[in-house]
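Journal club prep — side note

Before the paper discussion, L.F. wants everyone to see what a predicted structure for a comparable chain looks like in token form. Sequence:
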Amino acid sequence: MSDAVHVSEIFSSIQGEGVLVGRRQIFVRLMECNLDCRYCDTDYAKSDICRIESKPGSGVFINIPQPLTLTELSEIMNDWCNQLPGVHHSVSFTGGEPLLQADALARLFPKLRKVLPIFLETNGTMHLALEKVKSNVDYISMDMKLPSTAGCTEQLWESHAAFLRKSYGCNLSVKIVLCDLTTDAEISQVCNVISSVDTAIPIFLQPLTLPDGTVGISYSKLFRIQEIVSVHLSDVRVIPQMHRMLSVL
């Protein structure tokens, strides 16, 4: 099993999406992804350099060589928590797609969980890899990818359904990015997939943020989608990307 992970960047910021919105977290952004979503604003290509804040929350980055060993990453987490005791709610593993490195994370998470709860942000397509880390994850935030926004070349409904079933019983929530091109048929499929597992899973409808910072969906369409989803699912919330609004990482 791997003793190292490929990390794009490590920083401290406010969680701007989903169930922990507004919480301060340490973010560990891992490299590489198995999808290529049209709206993605992250450079997840593998490199031999990791960017890390010189101090948590400073916004000033230094470059360090990688991959990072599990010991190095654990030491960074411990150091930042010692610098700012009680400030961080949890550590968010995001990407890219973190579960591409599930073997290493399976060894890392039990160590880090002694310091902070683990928050996993995932595109919800790798249910077999999830099995390797599930027992040491405190929160799972799954993206449900719609063809209208993600632009993925393959239909992911079956993969999402399998991932939801595998995640059931965890502290699971689902994020769905919406735009003016999102169709009623897509939303019906979303409701069918999620309700087949549990109608009480928290659902976060997230308006697409365009490159200029504006929102890529009209309020009337957003309200209509919220109304449709709420007929089938019991916990539906509309939250934009708060970190983009605050102009933070």
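L.F.'s comment for the group: The mean pLDDT is 93. Keep this in mind when we get to the figures.
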